[in-house]
Design goal:
By secondary structure, this protein is mainly alpha-helical. The chain has two domains: 145 residues, Ribonuclease iii, N-terminal Endonuclease Domain, Chain A; 67 residues, Double Stranded RNA Binding Domain, CATH 3.30.160. A three-stranded antiparallel beta sheet has the order 1-2-3, covered by helices on one side. Helix 2 packs across helix 7, helix 3 runs parallel beside helix 7 and helix 5 crosses helix 7. The longest helix is centred in the middle third of the chain and has 32 residues. The chain is flat and about 60 Å long.
Length: 232
């Protein structure tokens, strides 16, 4: 699928008509067009916007959770927060607004399916949030976030404890120390890496898992170990 250069449908999905369209264009530009041998194909990529958008998303989500769940303890709020800002959630929202067809990246990455890579979509969504914030202020950013995140707050598992946190608590209660996560291998091209992680806990057989990010592989490995020792 080729890149869609007409950004009007995307702006409708975002609920904002940009005064400075260059902000949105930069938010959609992957580093494959600014670094390495293709560095002259675009002046700026979305990395700086991604940094800002991550913080804007975080404060808006945290503020809403704090107001919405007034009886929730800090740990419960943290679990809800983490489920809303994780890579999988952002990638899902990126697909909801058809972001893969607007992302600007090197042709070979697009032909290899790079535009649908969860890590790329996570970064791009954060950059788009920053572009909304810079062009229309906090109201524009919050309007988009409200439209795509609010309905997810009550989703099953939104307050469920992260497997890594659950394993750490389980291990601490039994005096087995802190789980140790070891990277065993890293394979595949840059846009489609696969990581194999092993988690080790004193007195337990190691557990392994594979995923397209270290964080997700760690979570999967923790879940495997918990499942094996849940009745201890």
């Amino acid at each position: 699928m080729s890149e869609n250069t007409d950004l009007n449908p995307l702006m409708i999905s975002l609920g904002h008509q940009f005064k400075d369209i260059s902000l949105l264009e930069v938010a959609l530009t992957h580093t494959s067009l600014t670094k390495g041998r293709r560095r002259k194909l675009a002046k700026e990529d979305y990395e700086r916007l991604e940094f800002l958008g991550d913080r804007v998303l975080g404060i808006i989500i945290a503020d809403e959770l704090y107001k919405r769940y007034q009886d929730a303890e800090a740990g419960q709020l943290s679990r809800r927060f983490n489920s809303q800002v994780r890579k999988e959630t952002l990638a899902e929202i990126g697909r909801d607004i058809n972001l893969p067809q607007y992302v600007r990246l090197a042709p070979e990455l697009r032909s290899a399916g790079g535009a649908d890579n969860p890590s790329l979509l996570e970064d791009c969504v954060e950059a788009v949030i920053a572009a909304l914030y810079l062009d229309g202020g906090m109201p524009a950013a919050k309007r988009f976030i409200k439209g795509h995140w609010w309905r997810r707050f009550e989703k099953e598992g939104a307050a469920k404890k992260d497997p890594k946190s659950a394993l750490q608590e389980w291990s601490a209660k039994r005096g087995r120390g802190t789980p140790d996560y070891v990277l065993l291998s890293e394979e595949g091209p840059d846009h489609d890496r696969v990581f194999t992680i092993e988690v080790r806990v004193d007195g337990c057989a190691p557990a392994q898992a594979r995923a397209k990010s270290k964080r997700q592989a760690e979570k999967k490995a923790a879940a495997v170990m918990l499942k094996e020792h849940i009745n201890e």
